[in-house]
């Protein structure tokens, strides 16, 4: 139970970046925690359970994205709510650009630049080679560059 | 990192760092987890327990059944007819198979024989010592029971690691569980009734009463059983056949069934099969304590 509370706070923002909205992020995180619970007896002896959960989260998101894409083939893109007043329009633009990336590219960007993982660590999470991480990251940055290169007053970390 | 990387990192933090903290729905998650584990065990490993439950179920029926089956075991043995009912025969086999060590092999799957798991192991109920292994693509899940102390760990996979699986657990490391246990648990979910029936033939008796199975004898001499189960969100129908060895002990239990559930708010259906083989009765079971042991949480 203590693990759930820590994991919920620790991985929610990652889930928001992967899914693009809070509602789906909570759904994704819940599903991932349930998967971990199912295998708890086996997993509880892992050195870094949070790293495992992060891997489940990313893979689960890719699966959900594929499932939804099959289920939601519609003629018109559904409307999204307009950002509330006071929200940084550049953040909104980046958020939208992130959502437009394929899920694996989005995962690479978020793990590399938000979670601050090394290319090797990202490769371990995604179960691919370091070369694949590099190429996916380069393609994603090409698509995001025009947004990120715009002047911004976003605070520094 | 170059400037673009840094700017991107700053922007990503800018998007979500203002997200409000929230309280996890812990109770709901635990309940979902329990249900998911139950469904998983039912669809895959639960079939195992059902297999075992089968025989037991019939045996219990005999023990508590109507008096007319009893003449089968009276002294009037001059009759050339077979005097025991199928249920009694099964009860007798279960009795002959308890309190003795054995090797076991269990295969589960759907009715096309796909998507199943294989468990292999040995168990001595007198010393509460045994093991069971279940190969997966990224490891071989292994449970060891040594004088009642339970260890669960993962050994390297039998084949090469799939390309989509990164390094996960530490192979050869076992979690030691607190307390003492009298049976293996790897494919039994203690939260379910059928899960209580472990690969211990004697456990069949316990499941027997609740399953309330009917038993008949097949033309080839094997014993056939059927039973149905219902829950709030679904139901299942199970049938199977039991083969006895030359000593009258349980040698093989082959089981098949159908299930349906509305647990996910829609109707899901499926089929399952399971084949349990018990052999080498009386085998000496020795298990060595693993070298790399951590306390399980």
Outline the structure in words.
The complex is a heterodimer of chains A (157) and B (297). With 157 residues, chain A is mainly α. In chain A, 72% of the residues lie in helices and 0% in strands. In chain A, helix 1 (2-19) crosses helix 4, helix 6 packs across helix 8 (130-148) and helix 7 crosses helix 8 (130-148). Chain A is globular, with a radius of gyration of 16 Å. Chain B is α+β, with helices and mostly antiparallel strands. Chain B has a single domain (31-295), classed as outer membrane lipoprotein receptor (LolB), chain A (Clam), CATH 2.50.20. Helix content of chain B is 25%, strand content 31%. A twelve-stranded mixed sheet of chain B has the order 7-8-9-10-11-1-2-3-4-5-6-12. In chain B, 36% of the residues are buried. At the A-B interface, helix 1, helix 2, helix 3, helix 5 and helix 6 of A face helix 1, helix 2, strand 5 and strand 6 of B.
Fraction of residues of chain B in helices? Answer: 10-25%
Count of discrete alpha- or pi-helical segments spanning 4 or more residues of chain A: 8
Instruction: Give the overall form of chain B.
Output: extended
* SS class of chain A: mainly alpha
- Terminal Cα separation of chain B, in Å? 39 Å
Main β-sheet description of chain B: 12 strands, mixed
Low-pLDDT windows of residues of chain B: 44-83, 189-199
Order of helices and strands of chain B: HHHEEEEEEHEEEEEE
Tally of individual helices of chain B: 4
Strand-and-helix sequence of chain A, N→C?
HHHHHHHH
Instruction: Determine Rg of chain A (CA atoms, Å).
Output: 16 Å
Tally of separate domains of chain B: 1
